[in-house]
Design brief:
The structure is a homodimer of 420-residue chains. Chain A is α/β, with parallel strands linked by helices. The first copy, chain A, is built from 13 helices and 13 strands. A 5-stranded mixed sheet of chain A has the order 3-2-1-4-5, with helices on both faces. Chain A has a 4-stranded parallel sheet with strand order 7-8-6-9, sandwiched between helices. In chain A, strands 10-11 form a two-stranded antiparallel ribbon. Chain A has 2 domains: 4-141 and 304-357 and 389-400, Rossmann fold; 156-303, 3-Layer(aba) Sandwich (Rossmann fold). Chains A and B meet through helix 6, strand 9, helix 10 and strand 13 of A and helix 6, strand 9, helix 10 and strand 13 of B.
Chain lengths: 420, 420
């Protein structure tokens, strides 16, 4: 088979380890020169492909690419831009193929969540219909851990480690002053529809009385009265109460606690502010001093506290994507398969993109205790391996040193602008 | 001189390294058995002394005490309880001396901020007046870095390292998605009246364009218009704008942006919510997507990312406090003296408690740029050494392992309860 170029694009919210996946893709492609000439990266994800802003990663040194392994966020830029159905967004899909054709792209690697798996699958369908020879590979990424077909998603383990560590540390803080000062602490975490990150906070509690005492999952409709009763009982029993709340917590009528009215390009409500709402509820009922934190981007950017397992898996799916591509597998995604829990062993498997596209894996009911406020032993068994090990970045002058690439744009080959 | 007991108490908000100071006090006292029999610790700080809840630290193993060096928060509990003037709070001061007498306390180590330096000084005065032989030593601690008489305060370096790292990481995140998504990010940090932590966020920016772009100090009255103009100019120039805001930011009329009406025991307003206010201001003016985080206790509990310099200094002031005490120095505080910047060298000096009590060190005007939005080179030179070096705690199962002491209470010797 001929030597052709590859295109890699990041999609959606970035993570502490998505660049480790990019590192895996590029380093592995460089070892398959007979098949892959250059790896281009979409500037700001798929938008850069549509507008023909392609970054030529061959202009980066091996050291720069290696540094991606410990650099958070998206080195080439990412975007929240969802292509719709093949008919509805026909012009966009055809434009993608036109750009691929112009740059002799034979391999398309799309690194994202379930929306991106859908896009990658549709591109593969259209390429087939148009007779354009193209291998499309999805690569899993999402802090939300909500992709089906994979045991877990790269990006999740590191945010899980961060929120569990932060909850443990804040729990020590509150415990030491609760008898005379703050008694209730609320930490708001990400996870719009799936409570995996909320669940991960629960890893901080190893013994009865440890923080956190209450988890508020997006999967469990929020009823103020049982919640407030549990807060009071916890303060009476343990002296303080530490709570983790999902940004996506909803009332039984489906309304978000934190609804702001703003929606993103995927039509998802832009959330933030569940923690202060919960704190207000507690303050209005009890005479408890209350503090709250909103981790927001800190949690998904915290490469300084990445999970080593997560970094290794993020790299491995990037590497596997290239290996699948050069063997001609199309419309698939490398996924993580759990082989055993003790010791934790995993391997890379392969799933069909069509089976992953647009589906969402929520926290199963048997991972949440009957009262809705804790994780079960089964959940803990699932989560615990994913936060194992540390992989600190290099530090200079007391701060982590992260890579900044040159990001040289490839010469454009198509005439005119494409409006998106 | 006879062998007598010592009393150690933590005061006010806890930090990532105040237990390293406790470790320094206890380990050093154990090396001075000829002078110091036992170290008691006040359960929940000074309140435990008033109520005669003294923890007998001799019941802890050397390994447990050693583990305090890497354990955040207050191992014996702390409190926000301020003794007033000697006449006004006469009963409390006399009670302290009565408890000291009952337990043969010859050394009082009070580990806190400027309020605590004041209390320690007053106790030394009263003991003198009553003819009770007592050595009173203040030990500096505060994340706010607002103590006079010391170059910097143990506790500050670690929170500075945490906020600068977090700002750098979130900056990478926002930069990678700003062209199509979030353009403005706001991080709220602690520092009620002094903007040292806000200033520390500025360490994350090493080159033009790096996050953060705007710092909002409590020392600089907040004027919305120049701020909004700077946000717009920054987004136009760099594509995004990262902002650090002090919880204590005020309008020119002195009103806090985040005033909640709740006050703590020291009469300070309990703050929180400057970040969402700033985000709302930006959203209401511009069509910029905006995210915000409130670090709250996460920042002062983040022992996983402690500054090694800070840990060493925290231990050193504890050790020095005991060494000063056994040589008979009274009513003093060991302080940190900077010897040089490059390389950073420091030593322990001694200050009079009377000179430290109730004073506050704000960020000097020449540490802030003329426009009020950045730190100067002089400020950077001061701050940079304080975040140097890492000192990670041990990890087990992917999470940091922190000490929990037995905290055995000493038998009470006084009859009746003391109401506080």
């Amino acid at each position: 088979m001929a030597q052709r170029n590859a295109l890699y694009a990041q999609s959606g919210g970035v993570t502490a380890v998505i660049n480790a996946t990019a590192c895996g893709v590029i380093e592995t492609a460089r070892r398959h020169r007979a098949r892959i000439r250059k790896v281009y990266a979409g500037r700001d994800g798929i938008i850069g492909v549509l507008t023909e802003h392609l970054i030529d990663t061959s202009r980066e040194t091996p050291a720069a690419i290696r540094a991606l392994r410990y650099t958070p966020a998206g080195a080439f830029g990412s975007c929240r831009y969802k292509l719709k159905g093949l008919e509805e967004s026909r012009a966009q899909y055809e434009r993608l193929i036109a750009v691929f054709r112009a740059h002799d792209i034979g391999y398309f690697f799309y690194n994202g969540g379930n929306d991106s798996a859908d896009t990658a699958w549709k591109v593969s369908q259209l390429a087939g219909r148009l007779g354009y020879p193209l291998v499309c590979i999805g690569i899993p990424k999402t802090v939300d851990n909500d992709l089906v077909g994979t045991d877990n998603c790269p990006g999740f383990g590191s945010v899980a480690k961060y929120v569990a560590t932060s909850m443990r540390e804040a729990g020590y803080d509150v415990a030491s002053m609760a008898r005379t000062s703050t008694k209730v602490f609320v930490l708001e975490v990400m996870g719009r529809h799936a409570g995996w990150i909320t669940a991960a906070c629960g890893l901080a509690a190893e013994k009865a009385g440890d923080a956190p005492h209450i988890l508020l999952f997006p999967e469990v409709a929020f009823e103020p009265e049982p919640f407030l009763a549990r807060v009071e009982a916890t303060v009476k029993k343990h002296g303080f109460c530490a709570i983790a709340v999902s940004e996506g917590l909803r009332y039984p009528d489906g309304k978000f606690l934190s609804e702001s009215g703003v929606r993103d390009a995927f039509g998802h409500a832009q959330l933030g502010g569940a923690a202060p709402r919960i704190a207000s509820l507690v303050r209005n009922r009890f005479d408890y001093r209350c503090h709250w934190a909103v981790a927001d981007y800190l949690q998904r950017a915290a490469r300084h506290l990445a999970s080593r397992v997560d970094v290794e898996q993020a790299y491995a799916v990037g590497k596997a994507a290239v290996e699948l591509a050069v063997t001609g597998r199309n419309a698939v995604m490398p996924v993580i398969v759990r082989k055993s829990n003790r010791p934790y062993r995993w391997t890379i498997g392969v799933a069909e993109l069509e089976d992953i596209a647009n589906r969402e894996k929520k926290v199963p009911r048997d991972f949440i205790t009957r009262d809705g406020f804790r994780i079960t032993a089964k959940c803990r068994e699932y989560l615990a391996p994913l936060i194992q090990g540390e992989d600190p970045p290099p530090f200079r002058n007391g701060l982590p040193v992260y890579a900044k690439l040159r990001n040289v744009t490839a010469p454009r080959k198509l005439a005119g602008e494409f409006k998106i």
